[in-house]
Amino acid sequence: MTTTVAARAERTDTQQATTTMTLAKAINTGLRSSLAQNEKVVLLGEDIGRLGGVFRVTDGLQREFGADRVMDTPLAEAGIIGTAVGLAFRGYRPVCEIQFDGFIYPGFDQIVAQVAKLHYRTGGIVRMPITIRVPFGGGIGAVEHHSESPEAYFAHTSGLRVISCSNPQDAHTMIRQAIDCDDPVLFFEPKRRYWVKGEVDQNITGQTPMESARVVVPGNDVTVVAYGPLVMTAMDAATAASDDGVSVEVIDLRSLSPIDFATLTASVRKTGRLVITHEAQQFGGLGAEIAASITERSFEYLEAPPVRVTGFDVPYPPAKLEEHFIPDLDRILDAVDRVMGNRNSLTDWGN
Amino acid sequence: MFSEIDTARSVDTTEFRDRITPPDSIDQPMRSGEIIQLLTPDGQRRKNSQFDPWLRDITGDVLADLYEDHVVARRIDTEATALQRQGELGLWPPLIGQEAAQIGSARALRDDDFVFSSYRENAVAYCRGVDLTDMIRVWRGNAHSGWDPYAIGMAPPTVIIGAQTLHATGYALGCKRDGIDSVAIAYFGDGATSQGDVNEAMVFAASFQAPVVFFCQNNHWAISEPVGLQARRPIADRAPGFGIPSLRVDGNDVLAVMAATRIALDRARSGGGPTFIEAVTYRMGPHTTSDDPTRYRDRAELDEWAAKDPIIRLEALLKNIGVFTDELRESVAAKADQVARDVRAGCLSLDPPEPLTVFDHAYSTPNSWLDRQKSQYAAYLDFYSGGAR
């Protein structure tokens, strides 16, 4: 597991014991730590109490911390977020669970018009240390509204921080960093990687800051930027590319807003080639922002135009079609061939 | 603790019903049109055995103070409207006609209660002790929020209709969790009752028995839309469906408003959960200074409500009980004049903010993207003017 590699490399205290756990459990233990350390942390969401959440991410937390800190709420996303705003006014640090990505829209107004803006509105007096957890992405064969990647809406909104984890160690560390952050944080959890296991060090001192991207596979020829569920896919692509003699550097973006352009720029100035991949639709997405910003900042270093490998610009398709929507290893490799100038699917396609 | 959803309590209004029968009964909603009134438009005091006990401390002196609040609030409104017409304010949302609804409720609050309001509650802000210049700041375009919410126990005005009702509910849950008896009060209008947020707030408040007061000023108009477009029945009738007792009061009657608010606050403080108050009033002015109400409402309706003016009836009451002396009239007029001068001076003292403050407070912690943008804009300003900091 790359997790272990990354965590090991960055751990300052190598004596700390680690435990093997799933990504879902890593979030669970992160939430548990935050609840234990700060009595102002409260969890709100649908089915997060007795059931432990539909993905069991909050399993056991209500039993341990009580129903007034792990609150099952009525089924109303605006209600969950708006109530969290009031709690934040009163000094609480609410952690809201949105059950599925596609359910976040009823709460959208409260997120973008209130949560995101209150600190600015009040000239810095009222803080909104609200964490909004969102299981996102496809690949689980679900019905409509259960497989979406709405992160760009929030990355577009000033006042919000948007992060996503790809492995258990980051999941644990980043949920705690999000809760500790005085700004509101959208925390996108890669739901199809919930059951991926990795070693987790629950002493997070010295872990990578929330805002930082991370080079998870070093390479020299092509930079592939991914986040959330596609980091594993991109790493697999890097392994496959190396068999063909192409050295791919994979960057786990981790923070989608703000983006760690220092790490991205350093990589692209080394490789000269950029591929960005995400499950979300392409138009106006994170890939567009990264491609534009890298082009603005590092045009003279680029050997080829940046290429995006993304979900298509259609609503998320039915489960039996999702393999034709979610970028996979082969589509990423095809993009690597494009930026390398190798023969690829579009070589004979025209323009 | 708000965690335990006590379903028995959430529908048991016996205690409350006993206190102020009949209007709050969930089983027997108030009859349409039934409005609690303690002070008639001609200043006659109507006895009400359920409400009067909540007004025992309202002496002639207190009434005189309330009268001053009314006159000052209206004077602020008039002055601010003038400032807008003179180009000193970008916009102003007049509250004229709604003074009793706002003052009667706001003066019932304790300092440690917390207000979540819309943009029209400037008389509430005045009662909360807001600095007059701070009241103006938003409307001159200098800030999105004029005051420190924690200093006066009042959140900044919420422009998105009804969104603040959820904030009040959440804040109230926090109070309950903190083990204190402070109450959150949400001010909103008749138009807001159509919003999902307001309905969700009532669901949450009822389920968790949050110590929150939903204070709806039914001023009959949501810009050009009459209340009949929002509600086919009295708005107060809705709350019992959520398990929330409601009161419908004459919103131009400061005594009825104050008594109802005190009842609701007492209920919230003693663990009785939320209460919904519909204060039936009238927006005598335009929606804002940008609006032209002559396009959508009749003069006759305005005249009808002018006869129910909250200040006229309070003045009549003061005369009836012998409190309205020349001295009072003059001191109130002097106070209003002074406040108007202060509003104007405060307004004119507000210079445009420094250019680079446009970036301030978007985040509470450093943000690499925004820091770069700010740095580049500073360079741009420097390059062309040499004067930016």
Provide the descriptors you would attach to this structure in a database record.
heterodimer; A: 351 residues; alpha/beta; five-stranded mixed β-sheet; globular; disordered N terminus; B: 389 residues; 7 strands
How does this model look, in words?
The complex is a heterodimer of chains A (351) and B (389). With 351 residues, chain A is α/β, with parallel strands linked by helices. Chain A is 35% helix and 19% strand. Chain A has helices spanning 2-10, 23-37, 61-65, 77-89, 108-115, 118-121, 151-155, 168-180, 230-243, 261-271, 286-298, 329-340, and strands at residues 19-22, 41-45, 70-72, 93-97, 131-136, 161-164, 185-190, 197-200, 214-217, 222-226, 248-252, 255-257, 274-281, 307-311. Chain A has a seven-stranded mixed beta sheet with strand order 3-2-4-5-7-6-12, sandwiched between helices. In chain A, helix 4 runs parallel beside helix 5. Chain A is globular, with a radius of gyration of 20 Å. Mean pLDDT of chain A is 95; it is low at 1-14. Chain B is an alpha/beta fold and 389 residues long. Chain B has helices spanning 7-11, 14-20, 60-85, 99-106, 122-127, 132-140, 149-152, 163-178, 196-208, 227-230, 254-269, 299-306, 310-320, 326-349, 368-385; strands at residues 114-116, 184-189, 212-218, 221-222, 225-226, 246-250, 275-280. In chain B, helix 3 (60-85) runs antiparallel to helix 13. The radius of gyration of chain B is 22 Å and the shape is globular. At the A-B interface, helix 4, helix 5 and helix 6 of A face helix 8, helix 9 and helix 15 of B.
